[in-house]
Each structure stands twice: as C-alpha cells, then as structure tokens.
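[User] I wish I could look at a protein chain and see how it folds. I have put the entry right below:
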Amino acid sequence: MQVGLVVLYILFVPIGLWLLTEVLWQHGAPFRYRLLAFIGFLGVPAGIALHNPIVIGVGILCFAIGQFLTTRYVRAAYHHGWTITGKRPKGRRAKTR
C-alpha cells in the first residue's frame, strides 16, 4: 500500500468522528441533511476501498449537498447551536432579543 493512501485513511478517522458528532449534536439543521453529509463522507472511503470512482463521486456529491444544506439551516437558526447537554431546543425559530 502506498504511503499516501495510508495517510489518507488515517485522516478519514478524525474527520469522520467530527461529522458523527455534528450529526448527533447539531440541532440547528434537520437530521436528514446532517445524515446525508455523514453518509456521503462514508461513501468516499468506501469508494476508495472498492476502487470505484462512481461511488467516490456519489459520496462527494452527497457530502457537499448535505454540508451545504446543514450550513444554510444553521445560519438561519443559529441561536439553537450545539446541544452538548442533550436537551433539544424548545422552539424552531424562537426569537432572541
């Protein structure tokens, strides 16, 4: 195995963990968009392992769409933010003063 691929696989681990925490704790965006980004991310190493550029491309596309939609919703409702305490926010668009 080439050194570049080893480094690539090592870097997939912290990025995957970061996306998993975003999927679980980020309540500013709908779960389906966060999950789309995470599944798209998992599609990239799966495509590399399978040596299939179509799977890699679909993974990149799903990741990009999921991250775009997540970012859009978080910016629109940022006051919800991260919920590390495990308590889900009460209102979708509660007004802040």
Remarks:
- The two ends are 57 Å apart (CA to CA).
- The longest helix spans residues 53-76.
- The chain has a mean pLDDT of 78.
